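Methods: example folding runs. The two proteins below were folded one after another, and each record is reproduced exactly as written to the output file, sequence line first and structure-token line second.
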Amino acid sequence: MTEAQTGRRAGPDGGRGPDGEPGEERGRPVRWKVIFVTLLVLAALGAVTWVVLGSRLLVVRHVEVTGAELAPHDRIVAAAGIHIGRPMARLATGEIRERVERLREVESAEIERHWPGTVRIVVRERVPVAVFERDGRHHRIDRHGVVVADGEDRPSGLPTLTVAAPGPSDKATLAALTVLSDLPERLKGKLREVAATGPEAVTLHMAGGQTVVWGAAERAEEKIRLLDALWRTAAGRAVRTADVSSPEVLKTK
């Protein structure tokens, strides 16, 4: 049979490799090496997956809470719903965060994994800025109008909030709290009460007996400058009522 009839071209050594072995025989060790390495990699991946997801080596053993003062530690842990012994990698941190943030004292939370077995809940609590009384209890409220704590005793260091229906959806409440948040510390320290009959009718009652008719929450910087200039003078310190609702015209009594 001729070369043309076979359809193959023989090499100078008759189809054998440089070492005299057929080419097919030379390829077998290479294929076995590839198969062996592939199996080894798959086994390693399977072992890692088992350790992370299925074994008892990387499971939740401790739950820590930081940043909490108003909310009790045990209540935060209970709200988080983290089960001891659950694989760390299987924790749904987003769902845990949402559960913790439903607590009234919590403004935001972060869930951190600390390998091999600790989960840390980092809490940023709401900050009370005022207090109001209802049904014989004193309720501390943050700048968004959310009640963060309540008790029978009135907490010290917070001004009284006087509105008809305190809450996060009440416009008068939000206007009063906006004014309160915009005040510099030098004025907050002298404030006894912030009252509002509507979103454009905020009044401040100072510890020294002065009354400030603030009006709407807008133009806070101008109104603060007017008050500072007024109270720097002897005559201004004798004023009992200052109306800064229209900063263009200061009215006093």
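Second run, written to the same file directly after the first:
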Amino acid sequence: MAEKDTRLLMLVDDEPAQCRLVSAIASRAGWRTIFARDAETAIAMLGTQDGMMLDAIILDEWAPGSDSAALIAELKARRPALPVLLLTAIGSTDSAIEAMRAGASDYLIKPVAAERLIAALSMAAEHSKDFGELQPLTEKITHPLGFDEIIATAPAYRSALAIAAKAARSRAPVFIEGEGGVGKEVVADAVHGASPRARLPLLKVNCGAIAPNLLDSVLFGHEKNAFTGAFDRRVGLVQQADGGTIFLDEIDQLPTETQVRLVRLLTENEIQPLGSPHSYRVDVRVISACNNDIAELLASGAFREDLYYRINIVQLRIPPLRERTADIPALARHFLARMATQPGLRSLGITDEALSLLKTYDWPGNVRQLQSALFRAAVLCDRDALTADEFPQIAAAVGRQLTTPIQMSEGIGVALYEQDGNLRPLEEIEADVIRLAIGHYRGRMTEVARRLGIGRSTLYRKLADLGIESNAA
């Protein structure tokens, strides 16, 4: 696909003079600007044809209709890979920090200098994917996880991952069911990564985030003048993924016409772009996912049975987080380690009291909600570790008072932090580790010493120094 000559910018601002200035500067660098006066208009425009082709958004701090950080968070939730830049006044450092924490790529001080604006737009363009309408479902902080790296102890989840790992080596379509936020994309990444196609593209599209009248063009492409507004020929995502994998999230949102085209792809390995007299053969593996019970859609005729049977060759169900609360401590520490790599954040621990609180909540938004809660807590925390005090909304939801001690849940491990978030003394932690090892290995001191990486004589000396009985459990 040829690179676009002109990039598309959305400016969210209701000041005519500033709109004229920004659009004039942007045009010098080859950007065309569309305008949204307020937050509601900006969100609505994401679903239009121009909105699907955006390369960047500039948001004025005082745009009507929304707090700027809230609007940025909403825009990033809908289009995670789309760069958002904030226009802010001199001295509004707090607003800039909040915007960056909400997902803004950069911020510009008003009145904006031409060279600064052009540089910021160029940087945004370099970091955006040049797939036209394609916008990845989520931005990755680290590389996708392999099957052996996914945190999963629940038998149902382990079973699903075992099936997925076996299926990964084949070309068979995979259908992933589960509530929103359970990690269906993580599994899709693992399937692709373990397949012979791992070195080829994995393209992702959220079918529910694209206007239905644009989905055919997004997936299968179109010829020039195929419909009103089709000024250029566009290669669809399926053809871009040739040799690799395409992940269709919220596949139940596909309109009937697009379902018919997908059936042809799965049965004949062929696609026909809109307005094209020719078909093209492609070799692409389809992984699809759905949040809803698709049986109801099948019964009502909203989802084609022939398509369902073709995407459902390998079926996986990912359990919700409330059914695998034992994974919460490991997930929390994993997310905190990832967050520590982000600008403006630092390495944080989490107390056993806080983990116990998180395990008590039922997490209707699943893993995605847990990650969001941890991120919010990490941004606001001024201690070395997150405590239950950082999760007042969670505490209120489970009906606990923060002043009431929460008992340590079984299996969380040795406590590293006091309830006030400060680290415990090293001597106390070491004593707890030794007691834990003695209990775990049932008093077999040779094995305890070997697992702790010390000699038996050193172990007995530590027992004496720390006042630990050798039969401690």
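Comment on the second run: Residues 129-142, 400-411 have pLDDT under 50 and may be disordered.
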